């Protein structure tokens, strides 16, 4: 101890600041060398499990391997947008899983209707009123994917069943020309048990675009008098691609059709609301597509109302329904209240899991362990007394300390 005091007093007796600094540097140099040697010794003596843990952390940081693609995963890919639907946890029968439109698509549409899909907020675009129809439209722009549209159309004096058949009836679309963009349609596949269909459409686009081809899977679920009608693009390698018409792969257009109160104010549920959710990648810049949709939206929508009234007259007159409309009668029954309960349970479980703080893994402290271990080894090697050991331990602790702070 006296030797250390004599050394310090000798430093303070230096006539210049530079001389004192040189003496202090000469005194501190062995300490820094000791710390470096301790670090090297600690790393050299690391146990085998340290290398294994480091390897495991590297593997955890790597991206997971691609999952097996199922019908539900393919549906999620085709419906990409900012909105990515949450995973469906409800058990699904194997035969249901194989259908091109399955329970996962129902859940996604139901969450869109209930505004529980977790996507960005909707921006109001338009509101129009006719004597027997009210129309509103919204748009949102997901971070990835084309613009998405939501609309509410309320028809007075219309039943959900007739409106359901009307939108499903491709033959009447062309015959009546209320949808003047549809040029061709054909049914490729159908399931008489579930009502699932695969159809091919060719639609006319404005003069600056070529016609577009769609391979569409569609199906209807019913909860009471409320109908969830899903139509979406599906892959079909059996239908060869052509240069013209150009195929549209990303396509989603689905409705929720339900009875609502008439605006007559008599409390009667004689009106019918159609909530439509639509987006597609037509192969043109999205900003141009948004401009075209905004300019032409009302011109297309206002043709629907006279088309529906003509369809009602035809049905009242007893005209036979088309095969497409007959398939709309084959629906899958379900209870929407059960979906709501299940969704709330899932959301509650997810929130509880998020609130549980992940425990810190002991592997994060490996650098500190190595540093302190090296210091211990170095301190035990030198026979310099308690002061030397204390200085070495203090230096190691300062190196290991920032991670803790």
Structure description:
- The protein has 14 helices and 11 strands.
- It has 405 residues and is α+β, with helices and mostly antiparallel strands.
- It has 2 domains: 81-351, START domain (Alpha-D-Glucose-1,6-Bisphosphate, Chain A, domain 4), CATH 3.30.530.20; 367-405, no CATH class.
- Strands 1, 2, 3, 4, 5, 6, 7, 8, 9, 10 and 11 form an 11-stranded mixed sheet that branches.
- Helix 2 (17-44) packs across helix 14 (385-404) and helix 13 packs antiparallel against helix 14.
- The longest helix has 28 residues, at 17-44.
Keywords:
single chain, alpha+beta, Alpha-D-Glucose-1,6-Bisphosphate, Chain A, domain 4, 11-stranded mixed beta sheet, 45% helix, 21% strand
Tell me the count of domains: 2
Strand count: 11
What CATH calls the topology of the largest domain is Alpha-D-Glucose-1,6-Bisphosphate, Chain A, domain 4
Percent strand equals: 15-25%
CATH homologous superfamily (4th level) name of the largest domain? START domain
The span between the termini is 33 Å
* Structural class by secondary-structure content: alpha+beta
Order of helices and strands: HHHHHHEEEHHEEEEEEEHHHEHHH
Spans of at least 5 consecutive residues with low confidence: 48-92, 382-389
What integer value in Å does the Rg equal? 35 Å
Instruction: State the helix count.
Output: 14
Question: What is shown here, in short?
Answer:
With 405 residues, the protein is an alpha+beta fold. Helix content is 45%, strand content 21%.
């Amino acid at each position: 101890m006296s030797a250390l005091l004599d050394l310090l007093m000798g430093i303070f007796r230096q006539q210049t600041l530079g001389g004192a600094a040189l003496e202090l540097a000469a005194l501190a140099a062995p300490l820094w060398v000791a710390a470096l040697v301790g670090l090297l010794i600690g790393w050299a003596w690391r146990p085998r499990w340290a290398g294994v843990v480091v390897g495991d952390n590297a593997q955890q940081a790597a991206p997971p391997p691609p999952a097996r693609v199922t019908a539900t995963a393919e549906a999620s890919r085709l419906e990409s947008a900012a909105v990515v639907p949450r995973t469906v946890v409800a058990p699904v029968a194997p035969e249901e899983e194989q259908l091109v439109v399955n329970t996962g698509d129902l859940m996604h549409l139901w969450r869109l209707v209930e505004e529980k899909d977790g996507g960005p907020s909707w921006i109001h675009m338009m509101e129009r009123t006719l004597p027997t129809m009210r129309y509103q439209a919204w748009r949102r722009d997901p971070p990835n994917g084309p613009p998405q549209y939501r609309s509410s159309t309320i028809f007075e004096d219309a039943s959900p069943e007739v409106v359901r058949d009307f939108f499903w009836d491709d033959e009447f679309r062309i015959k009546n020309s209320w949808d003047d963009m549809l040029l061709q349609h054909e049914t490729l596949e159908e399931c008489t048990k579930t009502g699932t269909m695969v159809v091919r459409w060719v639609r006319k686009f404005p003069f600056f675009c070529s016609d577009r081809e769609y391979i569409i899977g569609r199906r209807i679920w019913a909860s009471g008098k409320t109908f969830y009608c899903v139509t979406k693009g599906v892959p079909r390698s059996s239908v060869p691609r052509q240069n013209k018409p150009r195929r549209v792969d990303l396509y989603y257009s689905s409705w929720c059709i339900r009875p609502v109160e008439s605006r007559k104010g008599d409390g009667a549920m004689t009106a019918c609301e159609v909530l439509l959710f639509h987006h597609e990648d037509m192969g043109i810049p999205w900003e141009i597509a948004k401009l075209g949709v905004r300019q032409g939206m009302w011109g297309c929508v206002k043709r629907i109302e006279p088309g529906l009234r003509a369809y009602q007259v035809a049905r009242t007159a007893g005209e036979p329904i088309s095969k497409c409309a007959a398939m709309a009668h084959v629906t899958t029954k379900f209870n929407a209240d059960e979906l709501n309960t299940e969704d709330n349970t899932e959301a509650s479980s997810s929130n509880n899991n998020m609130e549980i703080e992940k425990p810190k893994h002991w592997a994060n402290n490996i650098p500190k362990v190595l540093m302190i271990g090296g210091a211990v080894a170095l301190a035990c090697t030198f026979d310099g007394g308690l002061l030397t050991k204390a200085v070495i331990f203090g230096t190691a602790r300062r190196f290991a300390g920032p991670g803790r702070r």
